[in-house]
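haha ok so turns out i had the wrong file open the whole time. this is the CORRECT one, sorry everyone. sequence first:
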Amino acid sequence: MAYIGRQPTIGNFQICDAISVVNGQAAYTMQVGGVNVNPQSANHMIVSLNGTIQKPNSSYTVANSVITFSSNLATGDVIDFIQILGDVLDLGVPSDGTVTTAKLADNNITTAKLAYNPNPNRNIIINGDMSIAQRGTSATSLGHAQYNSIDRWSQNLTASTMAFTGEQSTDAPDGFDYSYKISCTTAEASLSASSRMMPLTRVEDSNLGYLKFGTSSAVDLTMSFYVKSNKTGTYQINLWHNNVSGYISGTYAISSANTWEKKTIVFKGDQGTAMGNDSGIALQLEFVLAGGSNYTGGTFVPNTTTTYPSYVANTRAANQGVNLADSTSNTWQITGLQLEVGSTASDFEFLPVDVQTQRCERYYETSMSYGDYSQYQGQQPVAGMASSTYGATVSTAGGRQFRTWKRAAPTVTLYHQDGTSGGIYRIHDAQKTTGNVAVHINQNGFLFASKTSAFNSGFYYYYGITADAEL
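then structure:
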């Protein structure tokens, strides 16, 4: 339909709630359903008083939600109705079907306004739900700079006496299947100066240019996670930038013992130093559980710092208020760890198990069942060959291709079916050879399993492998 002039506003015509006249009063508040309403102007209303339609801006005026009649009303006067016309910008909810795609301005629908975050792979952390544990679901002794159980998790651990175990636990908050649980097995109630326990996970430098580190546009990073411990108090987290060899820090408080709590911390991006854009370490999240005097006493570097300072040892646990090593009853658990761009935490991004596994296998891969080197599963039969290298007799069996392209050429270990490292099983006579090594290794596999003797050309062999390219 065509119109002369502006097309009338449509939808959401409203009748105001009944208004009782107060003797000697001219001003009254207009409401619909008990909520104040603000007509765009007096001309957007039809008002009936004592059975007579009133003239806008003469018989009455409007200011926000207040209508004021030109003279005081008296007992016996009746405001029959007030009808508000049209769907003006500051009034109520649009009628069904009146908002079209064309009415939505470009860039006005943001991620924060949606019920889900449509940005795939927004979680910078790999295995944040602790679902993958290729090395095994438990480790009886965690070691410094070692990956012992849950994929992508290691620890900075220096101990006078304290010791810890790690495990993939099925104790987890609603919506999660697993958590990473660390338990103190040998106490160190009074920490020596150099003692520290700081579980960590690292992020590769490749493809992080979008963080814009080293520029004034460096983005904020929001970390969210679920945590549980019997030890209440203040805990410190350090966000390391490897190209600086330094960090900024945040804290969180465990308020209720043995209760899952969700925590969120926003870290400023580093405007001072760029990422390396290589396959080395870019970022490291370090969770402080214990720190001796070498790591305390300094000035805490807050998460609001925009130029990351170089490492100073006594700031590493400057605000840590808990010693998780003071009793063998102590435990600490984490899951749902997410690090994402922006200053608001979104719901945890669950990935399919095949996708999560492949992301973990970029850093570590096993051909065998998780955590089990002594069985046939994953022991691939390969053909034997014989060759000579630089004049010395060297026997070789065929190599293998990795399932997932590695971050760098990995360290490859061969396993006999009984779990012997470096062992290979010859099928036809059940002979075990030891001292075997993988040779000609690259990111995609290796050519041969090699030994100076004891292979027979033309026979078939079993062996399993692990390939380690961890950061």
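The radius of gyration is 34 Å.
again sry for the mixup
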